Amino acid sequence: MEIPLQSLYNGTWFKLICGASSQHIPTIRSCAVAYAIAGADCIDLAADPAIVMAVKEAIATIQPDYPTVNPWLMVSLNDGEDPHFRKATFDSETCPKDCDRPCEKVCPTDAIKFLPSFSGVVDALCYGCGRCLPICPIQTIQARPYVYTPEVIVPMMLALGIDAIEIHTQIGRTEDFTRLWQTIKPKIHQLKLLAVSCPNGPGMVQYLQELSQILSPPNDPLPCPLIWQTDGRPMSGDIGDGATRACIHLGQAVLALDLPGFVQLAGGTNNHTVPKLTQLGLFPPQGDRHLAGIAYGSYARSQLQPVLQQLEALGINRLEESPDLLEESVKIASKLTAALKRERSPKSG
Ligand code: SF4
Ligand code: SF4
């Protein structure tokens, strides 16, 4: 059994939520590297091809030194809104004739072409990494917004090698949820995990029961594990210990519903969460029905802020290029992961 799945069963699952409110790729990459080495089971990213590719590349880069680091990559899709990204665009008529076309060389997907039949950015090949934008000497390349429908983004994310999808929904959005689920369902066998994230509110019990029936009816059960992410107080973990109470309260309420699947805390999680769970007798996990783990977002990112600022001041985009800052960031990240699991030491994986 893969380590992340084992963690779910053991109640020690650690997920880093990285990217829901930030699209800054070097920051996401550094957070992913630090928490992956510190033992994160899963890294949850915006369903943005540029971000997914950057994190995949980062994990592959550190794996020779940390061979057992292999977190599952999850992307989040919102059932009420299609994801917005960017693509590069420029008018080749404005290019000076003597430009040696650094844009063409820097593009990792050969999306920039100068052919007799077409000159410019091939939309289908551009994933919006942004590398061509600053390199143009006359700054003629622009980023333009681009909206992906679920029919496009789901196969694209699977082709990039993601392991899991999380559907973000809200109470009462049954129709939107069903529409998005119908797009994911034919591909479900390619996923290791499906998650559903829903904030609290009146009618939550009935809504989650309804979703459970939609996802896993008795005659057609879900072929992969399912997580119910209880989004206590979204994006509030960095504002203090009060946020963690709401999140634990919601986790307990969803656990009591006994829905098929794991229950994992989020929204308001921070360094107070495990001590509070321990105080309530909910951690370490006991019995068959227990919380599967915790997702950390804004709190986890805020802990790394001093390191991220130093990286920025040094002009370093890849955390592993500064061994000192890498060590410092893993130490910081490990404080959080170690509350749920034992620390990993560098090089031993
Ligand atoms: S944004 Fe990235 S993928 Fe798109 S054209 Fe520029 S370099 Fe190529
Ligand atoms: S770098 Fe700028 S000016 Fe030069 S070919 Fe590319 S888009 Fe045109």
**What is the H level of CATH, i.e. the homologous superfamily of the largest domain?**
Aldolase class I
Task: Work out the radius of gyration.
Answer: 21 Å
Ligand kinds: iron/sulfur cluster
- Molecular shape: globular
What descriptors fit this protein?
single chain; 349 residues; alpha/beta; TIM Barrel; Alpha-Beta Plaits; eight-stranded parallel β-barrel; two-stranded antiparallel ribbon; 12 strands; binds iron/sulfur cluster
In words, what does this structure look like?
- 38% of the residues lie in helices and 18% in strands.
- The chain is built from 13 helices and twelve strands.
- The protein is α/β, with parallel strands linked by helices.
- α10 links the parallel β11 (262-266) and β12.
- Strands 1-2-3-8-9-10-11-12 form an eight-stranded parallel β-barrel, surrounded by five helices. It has a two-stranded antiparallel sheet with strand order 4-7. The protein has a two-stranded antiparallel ribbon with strand order 5-6.
- The protein has two domains: 3-75 and 148-340, TIM Barrel (Alpha-Beta Barrel), CATH 3.20.20.70; 84-146, Alpha-Beta Plaits, CATH 3.30.70.
- The protein starts with a helix and ends in a 9-residue tail after the last helix.
- The structure holds iron/sulfur cluster (SF4) (2 copies).
What is this structure, in a nutshell?
This protein has 349 residues and is of the alpha/beta class. The protein has helices at 3-10, 25-37, 49-62, 102-106, 132-135, 150-159, 174-184, 204-215, 242-257, 273-279, 298-303, 305-314, 323-340, and strands spanning 13-17, 42-46, 72-78, 84-89, 112-114, 119-121, 142-147, 164-168, 193-199, 226-231, 262-266, 293-296.
